[in-house]
């Protein structure tokens, strides 16, 4: 089970960096019924999220930490963590958020994110 948890954390962090502008990976990682509730309260579905990520020109770094992983069933996992962005010029941290993702195994044995929510923290580090 620990190997699965490590794999899902790797998938999640990949969406923050290298996989973020790769259509094939995004299409594979996000479940067809994917939904995100953004930290500003918008509901975004798979096609909208892929389009937004492919067009994202932000060069600031996203860091994630304090991962907690909980098995919900044999085919679903809840992943929670804290993230923040780092300005590449000033190195200042901003956009601290608590995040949760639900990953499910599809009929082909592939893990996909079906739900994500980011909530802005009331504090900054």
Automatic annotation (TrEMBL):
Protein name: DUF4440 domain-containing protein
Taxonomic superkingdom: Bacteria
Ranges of residues in domain DUF4440: 20-113
Gene3D superfamilies documented for this protein: 3.10.450.50
Cited InterPro entries: DUF4440 (IPR027843), NTF2-like_dom_sf (IPR032710)
Pfam families xrefs: DUF4440
